[in-house]
Amino acid sequence: QVQLVESGGGLVQAGGSLRLSCAASGSIFRINTMAWYRQAPGKQREFVAQIVSGGSTNYADSVKGRSTISRDNVRNTFYLQMNSLKAEDTAVYYCKVAVTTTARSSQEVWGQGTLVTVSS
């Protein structure tokens, strides 16, 4: 089994910064893709950012230029640095990984979510 533990959410003023972390553990042979999603109140979950094993990144237009996704392959942890936060960034942020397990099967796992609240 693969588990994800998220941290770093909280209350921040508009214009401020936060760094979210997502640590993966368990029967991991290789983490192929790491991604962040978010779900605002009353809205559907949406893609925020992704980083693949080769290091390429992809961002939603809504966060591009304000956010950076990065990964620490040694610790199986990845991060989302968010700057210049806006009220509309308020949401529960979820991390997701696509892994190859030690049994060489493919698995997709979601984190439990961490709340980010941006006050205006």
What does this structure look like?
0% of the residues lie in helices and 62% in strands. With 120 residues, it is mainly β. A hairpin with a 6-residue loop joins β4 and β5 (46-52).
Short note summarizing the structure:
This protein is an all-beta fold and 120 residues long. It is 0% helix and 62% strand.
What key phrases describe this protein's structure?
120 residues; mainly beta; seven-stranded mixed β-sheet; four-stranded antiparallel β-sheet; 11 strands; 0% helix; elongated
Order of SSEs: EEEEEEEEEEE
How does the helix and strand content classify structurally? Answer: mainly beta
* Percent of residues in helices: under 10%
Q: What is the number of beta strands? A: 11
**How would you characterize the largest beta sheet?**
7 strands, mixed
Terminal residue distance: 40 Å
**Segments where pLDDT lies below 50 for 5+ residues?**
none
The percentage of residues in β strands lies in over 45%
Mean pLDDT, as a whole number? 96
Radius of gyration, in angstroms, nearest whole number? 14 Å
How many helical elements? 0
Global morphology: elongated
Can you lay out the helices and strands and say which pair or pack?
Layout: E1 2-7, E2 10-13, E3 18-26, E4 28-39, E5 46-52, E6 57-59, E7 67-72, E8 77-82, E9 91-101, E10 106-110, E11 114-119
Parallel strand pairs: 2-11
Antiparallel strand pairs: 1-3, 3-8, 4-5, 4-9, 5-6, 7-8, 9-10, 9-11
